[in-house]
């Protein structure tokens, strides 16, 4: 993959950081994007030469436009991984204003980040050969539950699927592939924060057929294949990566 340029949103932590490291090992120059400059700088320094930190809030059209300008200076984009996301806290009260705000937070963090970044970088995608990957979740396939993967998070991730499939149709004739990867529970990331507990972990592991949690490296390995030149016939798919927690999809 010599000299290819990859952009990984949320590339400073968790799954995104592992994806950045894997694409770097595959020979890409990797732009890692997130809101926290220090986190990105640390990840870039630890991952090694070839990782370029660019801070931006991907819910902001202005910041995404500025980011696209910086990415464009590096040349065409060969690989775009829309990995940034978050799970907003569930709102229990009957207050509709609070409910609307909570839904918008999840839609912004999981859907609009990908919509804005992908739209801004689409003109820069390598044609042919560009690769676009969306990181979704099993929550989109089987519904969310509990505080960690409630309705708005599942709905926001599911919205990515429909949009990504249309994008695959649009970009396929140019030789660009677009796929959705839907991981199950992945440990060692920041997404659950203080809401993580040993009981939650055990329940998620018990849900799998292989009896373990997923790791960021599990996801990175799958992205490495989807991003590779050899994956040019694989497009328009939603691919589960969940230890068997969801079967057949
Ligand atoms: N861990 C799991 O069990 C699991 C399962 C299925 C799917 N996923 C998905 O995997 C992806 C990565 O999550 P993770 O588990 O690795 O959690 P994480 O460590 O919290 O990573 C999320 C990343 O997204 C970035 N981000 C969030 N909002 C952003 C914004 N507005 N603009 C720019 N960057 C933003 C964060 O950086 P900043 O805070 O610095 O902006 C952070 O680096 C997410 O889409 C998540 O939904 C995770």
| Class derived from helix and strand content | alpha/beta
Q: Which compounds are bound in this model?
A: NADP nicotinamide-adenine-dinucleotide phosphate
Tally the beta strands. Answer: 7
Q: Please tell me how large the radius of gyration is.
A: 17 Å
Helix content: 40-55%
Task: Give the domain tally.
Answer: 1
- What is the global morphology? globular
End-to-end distance, in Å?
Answer: 29 Å
Sheet with most strands: strand arrangement: 3-2-1-4-5-6-7
Q: Sketch the major β-sheet.
A: 7 strands, parallel
Extract low-pLDDT stretches. Answer: none
H/E element string? EHEHEHEHEHHEHHE
Share of β-strand residues: 5-15%
User: Which CATH top level class fits?
Assistant: Alpha Beta
Mean pLDDT: 95
CATH superfamily: NAD(P)-binding Rossmann-like Domain
Q: The CATH topology, please?
A: Rossmann fold
**CATH architecture title:** 3-Layer(aba) Sandwich
List the total number of helices: 8
Description of the molecule:
By secondary structure, this protein is α/β, with parallel strands linked by helices. The chain has a single domain (5-241), classed as Rossmann fold (3-Layer(aba) Sandwich), CATH 3.40.50.720. It is built from eight helices and seven strands. The protein has a seven-stranded parallel sheet with strand order 3-2-1-4-5-6-7, with helices on both faces. Helix 1 crosses helix 8 (216-226), helix 3 (61-72) runs parallel beside helix 4 and helix 4 runs parallel beside helix 6. The longest helix is centred in the middle third of the chain and has 26 residues, at 96-121. The radius of gyration is 17 Å and the shape is globular. The model has no long low-confidence stretch (mean pLDDT 95).
